[in-house]
Amino acid sequence: MVKKSKWIGMAVAIALCGAATGCAxxxxxxxxxxxxxxxxxxxxxxxSTTLSGSIASLGQTGLxxxxxxxxxxxxxxxxxxxxxxxxxxxxxxxPATGVSNVRTxxxxxxxxxxxxxxxxxxxxxxxxVTNAQHIPMFFHTSNDIGLTTATYSKYVFQNVPNTVMxxxxxxxxxxxxxxxxxxxxxxxxxxxxxxRDTVTGFIQALKAEKVNYTLVKQEFPPLGATDISSYxxxxxxxxxxxxxxxxxxxxxxxxxxxxxxxxxxxxxKVIAMYDYSVLQTLGSAAPAGAIGFDRAPYWTYxxxxxxxxxxxxxxxxxxxxSEWAILGYAAVQQWAxxxxxxxxxxxxAVSAALSGAAVPTILGDQQIRSCDHQTELxxxxxxxxAKPASxxxxxxxxxxxxxxxxxxxxxxxxxxxxxxxx
Length: 422
Fold this sequence. Notes:
Elements: E1 42-49, H1 56-75, E2 83-90, H2 95-107, E3 113-115, H3 120-132, E4 137-139, E5 156-158, H4 165-178, E6 183-188, H5 193-208, E7 213-219, H6 229-238, E8 242-245, H7 249-261, H8 264-267, E9 269-272, H9 276-282, E10 291-294, H10 304-317, H11 323-342, H12 347-354, E11 358-361, E12 364-367, E13 379-383, E14 403-405, H13 407-410, H14 414-421
Parallel strand pairs: 1-2, 1-3, 3-4, 4-5, 6-7, 6-8, 8-9, 9-10
Antiparallel strand pairs: 10-13, 11-12, 13-14
């Protein structure tokens, strides 16, 4: 199990509500729209995300994390004297729908902050709306590097490893396992910005790590494709020793089941986003020995705070939290900490408070870089276990210990990010 460094203790209820200050007190400029007004009433935050289709599990559990964080804030007395209300809508993984949802939440519901979505293509479209209205946007699932470069503004915050960091971690792990041996590699990814950028990041990282590899095949099926047999046949015909797969959610479940019918897992090592949600869905069909990567696997955090959060999440939803739920909860913690710190709901105040700050969350103290508002997170990699997690949990997790790729080893520097922002 990965040991996390010591950090300031806090209640799972909400990290920002310390006994000395609390969350319930009102402050000047704490109206529901960020303007005047004092305590009392409510304030709205929005989550437009994917709640249907093959990748719905990411949006659904991410929304649960956001809702639980809001409920915990309210149970502790609210934020600046107001109860936090969450409005949500399904974007159907479609940019136009996401934009429509966000406009409604900002104009009709007067949301003061936005969270989500899943697909980075949707996120890039939504980001333009929130940027124009100076509304803070927290990406706790979508992670394309373009969100904090090409379309970045000071109102954007990304608390997930981006499409450079995540594949770099997988490449680091692979380089460590190979120890200089020559291998053949294929890639498999959804055909849009996230998938292509993730694959590009993985290949670049292999080169940087001086991995002795030959790229034998690359396949890019459409996001949500139900029949991927022709793509799998092409991969199998290339006979790679490793397949790097950038699919996720239901798409990765479908790949795993169809790949198993081809006998692919007996012939090659698959590296993919085998997180809790996917592993739970697969159950005993999880391919033992395959390599999984995850942005926040709860079982790698050896802290009482995470254990308490997992217990609370199980009690409310009847299941352990996915990385999406954990990161959604932490994103709301970041926002609420900034509101409490600044005494205001305004986007400018929240942005100023968070930029360069270290914010206590269920994941520990999270440093937010001022140059790109990227949260300094590690990425985790591990081999899938052949045994269930426990006698009461049939999910096949990872064998211990997990491989932790620290932020400073997998992230672009501020200079590199700022060059991409121009």
